[in-house]
Amino acid sequence: MLWPGECILQMLLGKNIRRKKDVIRHLWIISNSVVASWLPAYQIKEWLLSDIVSGISTGLVAVLQGLAFALLVNVPPSYGLYAAFFPVIIYFFLGTSRHISVGPFPVLSMMVGAVVVRVTSTTSPTGGNNTSISDDLDSSSEEQKVMVAAMVTILSGIIQLLLGVLQIGFVVIYLSESLISGFTTAAAIHVLVSQLKFILQLTVPAHTDPFSIFKVLESVFTQIEKTNIADLVTALIILVVVSAVKEVNQRFKAKLPVPIPIELIMTVIAAGVSYGFDFKTRFNVAVVGKMNSGFQPPIQPDPKIFQDTIGDSFGIAIVGFAVAFSVARVYSLKYDYPINGNQELIALGLGNIFGGSFRGFASSTALSRSGVQESTGGKTQIAGILSAVIVLIVIVAIGFLLEPLQKSVLAALALGNLKGMLMQFAEIGRLWRKDKYDCLIWIMTFIFAIVLGLGLGLAASVAFQLLTIVFRTQFPKCSTLANVGRSNIYKNRKDYSDMYEPEGIKIFRCPSPIYFANIGFFRQKLFDAVGFSPLRILRKRKKALKKIRKMQKKGLIQVTPKGCICTVDNFKDSDEELDNHEIEELDQPINTTDLPFQIDWNADLPLNIVVPKISLHSLILDFSAVSFLDVSSMRGLKKIFQEFIRIEVDVYIVGTDDDFIEKLTRCEFFDDEVKDSIFFLTIHDAVLHILMKKDYITSKEKEVKTDFIVNTNGGLHNRECQVPLETKF
């Protein structure tokens, strides 16, 4: 039977891989281009000593974090060493970052641990004798938890590998910085709560459903009187000392040649004291216990677990890559070298596949461990490979020395690494001042992850983040623009004092795409900006036109060479009769060619005929920020244009690109009413065109001798006394 790494390579390479030396050969082929990009240029004299110091320091931290984070996964601590070893080896050959330290990460460990608890709690039998937290798990239950953690790790690695091979690593862009910050902060709270049972040495039942964190807290506080004082005091001492020395390391990092390895020092002291004074027997503390020496054979995949955990594995894969890539990007910018997101996915994916195959759990990069590797002088992944050597020595030779170490010490070390994530609460104030939407994303992500758990919380957070994007585009901050200081610059008229708005011209800006969800909002904002509804004006005019036609047919309006005269003082007509006609007829263009006169809708009309007057003659729409239109919004936009054009308001569009116009043409947007000559490059070009057009019409009208009379009782003009055809614009 092929082991998982062989299966994946066989699937990707399409070859029948039968021997492990073939696997190594194929891995070398894949990684040769990556390693060759930096290894031949390695400066031995300048970099080797720094990498050795960094590798040893990072390796010691990796050992302790591997043991501590294994508690988060609910597996024996020794399996954390496998998670700290195999991914580092794979990343050395395939990774593109020179400074990150690959291995266990508390957030991922917590996510894997939640899956382990959920799957094992539904498959393992209930009942039996109660056991305390200090007792070792029976072999079958332990093996089952290790199996689930390994399967989740392998599946998440496969997902990462496929994303990298298919070049779709862009999915990580859906995890914004605000979301990642809020999620990791919530994960830190989960880690803190999960470690209370080790610090207090209490028997806490597993919970994985929503609100599980509150159920764990309830269980802890109801048993608080059963606390093991020795474990509590030891954990508090370790936590205080480690936190204090880490603060010293941070404050004096410029003066210290290497950070003080306080975690290693306290671990050695705690293990020695526990062994020397026999804490396990005297105080009944929980210790690491039996440490497996060497490596175990590869694990056999279990398709049933794959089916049960595919959703969780996808979340683990995405979060692991997002954290690792964000840290790698920071160092790549700092030291000016390129990284490849898709190659990072391949490296992390294969690392998880190999790590899970040998009973490890999901890996990414811990911020503190990467900081140690970089701050101690690490130049390349040579430091990473040397840190793996340190882990290897512990696995095969000296792991037994850690057997008397209290689990509360490991829990305290895990909590000591949470300071950076817990300090992210300060992000709330900063985000509130900069962008309230991002602040809301942070807060809601934190709440979702706390209440629903990390898996469902991540899914809900991504959905909420996408919803905020829809909300921003669905309700854009539209504005009315005006000229600044009589220049060619047009800005929001609310932002400046010296603003000039050309008479009869309205400039309206929409700062977002227009699509099916916001076309109604766009329509309403536009009508609010111009101060009227063109459809309402059009219907009023159509109703007035019906009355005028009736008056003209009854002889109540007479046309003379001097103008039009109304022969009655009043005329009554039923509005109900007009309102009962079909609405579609009222929405059609106004046609007055059958009348012997034209109507000036802004003048006083005869008798009791009232139509709202409008001073607007041109509308300019700034679409420079409109990146796309969909078919639904295109239909709505055309209807808006037709409504304005039918009440003699010219509409212009500025700032669009050729693709925008091409799409409108392809969708048959233009017709006899909405023409393709409405586009201008800038707002100022459109304004100049409108002013020149207005001046031209005005000058032509002055040349025409008007020999008709405008009656005081009506805005009707003799059509034959109008501007001659040859002078019409």
List its salient traits.
disordered N terminus; 57% helix; 13 strands; STAS_dom; STAS_dom_sf; elongated; alpha/beta; disordered C terminus; single chain; Solute carrier family 26 member 3; 729 residues; membrane; transmembrane helix
Brief overview:
This protein has 729 residues and is α/β, with parallel strands linked by helices. Helix content is 57%, strand content 6%. It has 28 helices and 13 strands.
Could you describe the 3D structure shown?
Residues 495-690 form the STAS domain. It is found in: Membrane. By secondary structure, this protein is α/β, with parallel strands linked by helices. Helix content is 57%, strand content 6%. It contains 28 helices and 13 strands. Helix 26 (631-645) links the parallel strand 10 (618-622) and strand 11. The termini are far apart. The model is unreliable at 1-18, 125-137, 576-581, 705-714 and 720-729 (pLDDT under 50).
Summarize model confidence as the mean pLDDT.
82
Number of helices: 28
Determine the strand fraction and express it as a percent band: 5-15%
Which consecutive residue ranges, at least 5 long each, have pLDDT under 50?
A: 1-18, 125-137, 576-581, 705-714, 720-729
Question: Which bin fits the share of residues in helices?
Answer: 55-70%
Task: State the separation between the terminal residues, measured CA to CA.
Answer: 86 Å
Shape: elongated
What structural class do helix, strand and pairing data support?
A: alpha/beta
For the secondary structure, the number of strands is: 13
| Rg measurement, Å | 38 Å
The largest sheet is:
7 strands, mixed
